[in-house]
């Protein structure tokens, strides 16, 4: 018999609004034996059925909801249905932008908690990050094999968040074999190299696709500094749109080497590009001391906050790099600045950037608000799905 989770009185409100998380403090008791990742029924304090989800005894998020439909059961057919719906929702975007690289499943925002699946040409890269996703591994992989029979499947569940679920990190091939060559994907007429085995996240930042295109519009005849450049894909769009000069800065020489290959792959003028291996925080100050300036600066740093306790420190980090970047911009220059920290509210990020302008002694005007690409949707019942915040600013 399937175990049940019974909520404390009044704790069903968020669930009735179809938020997919139930925290440990909301639970009154567990009836029956609920194993790690097993499917449980969720009942209110009066015993009324509310939802069905995955039980995770070691996580503060004790249950992640699979379905609010009592007639729906979690099996391979369930995953086929949900993944098909996610793919269908993206088909217009895929055709419009000529994508061979896109996010196929965006976890809770595609009603599949803890499951991220990215599509890179003929390879599907999976992250199974919740106890429920791990419990249903065979059904999820079976659904992918059914829907994409010709594709390789590779796992990149090598992230610390699995430890919070009582799981060990995993990475490696599930179906098929990847060679040593990098994978080439296409977007908006450009080609991009992806390191599936060793790259960041699942191999690449698909979520910045729309922002790469937007950045290109600001870069014509401009000198551009791209901080935390990773594999330099902002530069592809900028150079294709006529940037005068582009500087990629990253701590990883391997990432910079791929950035160079990306420029060559797209037949762009590599003489217009510098590749600088350096700590961004130190380099920005050195450039300021040297009197170096730019027309456009792109700040796309890694996540600064993994938990609420780190948020104040994250704010200081964002303020620091934005302040110095503003001091390096020519009057009328453009700053494109981002935060991928999900715990950073958009209004707080704007305040941090505004405070940075004050400390820099510059005037800043917001000319656009930027977000994650549309294959990274935000379910209306799951505002936490909005994690990538960006601002385009004119600095005077």
What would you say this structure looks like, in words?
With 396 residues, this protein is of the alpha/beta class. 31% of the residues lie in helices and 30% in strands. It has helices at residues 13-16, 76-97, 131-135, 137-147, 161-164, 209-218, 233-240, 253-265, 280-290, 311-328, 346-360; strands spanning 4-7, 21-23, 27-31, 39-43, 49-55, 61-67, 101-106, 115-120, 123-128, 152-157, 170-175, 183-187, 190-194, 223-227, 245-250, 273-277, 294-299, 329-339, 364-370, 389-395. A seven-stranded mixed β-sheet has the order 16-15-14-17-18-20-19, with helices on both faces. The protein has a six-stranded mixed β-sheet with strand order 2-6-5-4-1-3. Strand 12 (183-187) and strand 13 (190-194) form a beta hairpin. Helix 10 (311-328) crosses helix 11 (346-360). The relative contact order is 0.09.
Labels describing this entry:
globular; six-stranded mixed sheet; 396 residues; alpha/beta
Write the layout of secondary structure elements.
Layout: E1 4-7, H1 13-16, E2 21-23, E3 27-31, E4 39-43, E5 49-55, E6 61-67, H2 76-97, E7 101-106, E8 115-120, E9 123-128, H3 131-135, H4 137-147, E10 152-157, H5 161-164, E11 170-175, E12 183-187, E13 190-194, H6 209-218, E14 223-227, H7 233-240, E15 245-250, H8 253-265, E16 273-277, H9 280-290, E17 294-299, H10 311-328, E18 329-339, H11 346-360, E19 364-370, E20 389-395
Parallel strand pairs: 1-4, 9-10, 14-15, 14-17, 15-16, 17-18
Antiparallel strand pairs: 1-3, 2-6, 4-5, 5-6, 7-8, 8-9, 10-11, 12-13, 18-20, 19-20
Helix pairs in contact: 2-4, 6-7, 9-10, 10-11
């Amino acid at each position: 018999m399937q175990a049940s989770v019974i909520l404390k009185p009044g704790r069903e409100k968020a669930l009735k609004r179809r938020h997919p998380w139930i925290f440990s403090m909301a639970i009154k008791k567990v009836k029956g034996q609920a194993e790690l990742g097993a499917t449980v029924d969720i009942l209110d304090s009066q015993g009324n059925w509310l939802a069905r989800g995955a039980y995770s005894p070691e996580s503060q998020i004790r249950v992640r909801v699979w379905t609010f439909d009592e007639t729906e059961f979690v099996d391979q057919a369930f995953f086929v249905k949900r993944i098909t719906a996610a793919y269908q929702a993206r088909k217009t975007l895929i055709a419009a932008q000529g994508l061979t690289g896109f996010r196929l499943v965006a976890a809770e925002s595609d009603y599949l908690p803890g499951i991220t699946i990215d599509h890179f040409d003929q390879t599907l890269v999976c992250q199974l990050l919740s106890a429920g996703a791990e419990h249903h591994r065979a059904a999820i992989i079976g659904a992918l094999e059914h829907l994409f029979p010709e594709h390789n499947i590779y796992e990149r569940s090598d992230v610390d968040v699995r430890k919070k679920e009582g799981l060990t990190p995993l990475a490696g091939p599930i179906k098929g074999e990847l060679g040593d060559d990098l994978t080439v994907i296409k977007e908006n007429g450009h080609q991009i190299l992806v390191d599936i085995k060793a790259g960041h996240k699942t191999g690449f930042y698909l979520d910045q696709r729309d922002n790469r295109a937007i950045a290109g519009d600001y870069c014509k005849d401009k000198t551009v500094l791209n901080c935390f450049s990773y594999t330099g894909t902002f530069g592809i769009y900028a150079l294709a749109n006529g940037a005068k000069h582009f500087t990629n800065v990253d701590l990883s020489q391997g990432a910079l080497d791929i950035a160079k290959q990306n420029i060559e792959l797209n037949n762009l003028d590599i003489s217009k590009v510098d590749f600088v291996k350096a700590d961004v925080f130190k380099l920005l100050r050195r450039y300021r001391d040297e009197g170096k300036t730019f027309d456009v600066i792109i700040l796309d740093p890694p996540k600064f906050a993994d938990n609420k306790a780190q948020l104040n420190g994250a704010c200081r980090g964002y303020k620091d790099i934005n302040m110095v970047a503003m001091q390096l911009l020519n009057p009328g220059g453009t700053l494109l600045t981002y935060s991928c920290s999900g715990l950073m509210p958009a209004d707080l990020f704007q305040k941090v950037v505004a405070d940075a302008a004050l400390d820099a002694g510059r005037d800043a005007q917001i000319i656009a608000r930027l977000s994650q690409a549309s294959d990274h949707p935000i379910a209306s019942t799951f505002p936490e799905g909005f994690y990538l915040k960006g601002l385009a600013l004119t600095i005077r």
